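Provenance and format

Records in this collection were gathered into a single text stream. Each protein contributes a sequence line and a token line. The two records reproduced below are adjacent in the stream.
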Amino acid sequence: MAKLLVKQVRSQINCPQSQKRGLVALGLRRIGQVVEHESNPAILGMINKVKHLVSVEEVK
């Protein structure tokens, strides 16, 4: 499976609690932090929930 680099680019302040929990579930705590995940439906769903707060890049 492909790997994804997920970087938080916007603040979670003033976001709904479900989106804050999504960032925590992805392992993101601060702006500029980058985490690597396997591409699977669960991770893609979490990314879709907070797509306006993160940038995603596929690693081969």
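Adjacent record:
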Amino acid sequence: MKRNITCPCGERIVGQDEDDLVAKTQQHLKENHPGHDYSRDEILFMAY
């Protein structure tokens, strides 16, 4: 089941599953928002 999240910067991140979404979100944060690091639970809480 696909999971989605929208970063506050407006970027929409789509994952094939929870693990994929978490990995892509953490990579996006590392590349675009250094210093903003969210845990797996925090990311999944914001996902839909």
